[in-house]
Amino acid sequence: MKKLFILLAVACSSSSFAQEKYKLTKIWETDSLAVPESVTPYGDGKQMFVSLIDGTPFEVDGKGGVAKITADGKITDPMWVAGLNAPKGIAVMKNKLYVADLTEVVVIDIATGKVDLKLKVPQAEGLNDVTVDSKNTVYVSDSKNGMIFSIKNNVVAPYITSLKGTNGLKADGSDLYIGAGPVLWKADANKNLVKIAEGFESSVDGLQLIRKNEFLISCWNGLVYSVGSKGEITKLMDTRGVMNTADFHYDQKKKIVYLPTFYKKSVIAYKLH
After folding, report:
1. Which string of DSSP letters, residue by residue, matches the chain?
2. Tens digits of per-residue pLDDT, 219-268?
């Protein structure tokens, strides 16, 4: 009886610490797109922009652009804006689309599809992800030189200058979450850095909030993780050698992940449950 009691106690203790694991279930996949890297919604969320490299990831070749798709996977314009180089991260602020394109941030008017201006980013070598905070400050990462820049009223300034491998960005209130190499960081309003999680099998690419203090992470080579509120990491997907998992968008209300597959040339939607 005593042994049975001990076994039950251990079982109950273990179950109380068991962590719920999210699952991803495929909903749809688009037709072919020209090397999609990043996805973001606009307007009422029924339409989405997709950045297209359509060339090599860090070459000035004029082949890149932006496509438009619907939130149910139909391509409405395979090259809505053309003439970019290797566009990666994209983010909407008001009626403008901000696009990280190697050494400059391209600002596109959403209503017309015309390029309003190109903001040259001093010191930039390989701009990557873009996010916008609640005060309409744009942040863009530079993976090649380990920097993050801020853009306010079209003025570019260094923000964080020494964080090797900076890539994925997500602004949330006064906090900026940063994927740099295999580590997830948080920078507060004073730029103080706190390590949130580490141990990903590759460098962080996409970064989104599931809810407060919980995250989804993609690594370009085919990995997707969830990160719990205590920094615990759970692998949700491993498609290494089959397809890439680039800079995705997560719809918190619909619980849908919109994932660009880069060289597989599509966007795939998954239900997170």
Report:
1. -HHHHHHHHHHHHHHHTPPP---EEEEEE-S--SSEEEEEEETTTTEEEEEE--S-TT---S-EEEEEEETTS-EEEEEEEEEESS---EEEETTEEEEEEBTEEEEEETTTTEEEEEEE-TT-S-EEEEEE-TTS-EEEEETTTTEEEEEETTEEEEEE---TTEEEEEEETTEEEEEETTEEEEE-TT--EEEEEE--SS-EEEEEEEETTEEEEEETTTEEEEE-TTS-EEEEEE-TTT----B-EEETTTTEEEEE-GGG--EEEEEE-
2. 999 999 999 999 999 999 999 999 999 999 999 999 999 999 999 999 99
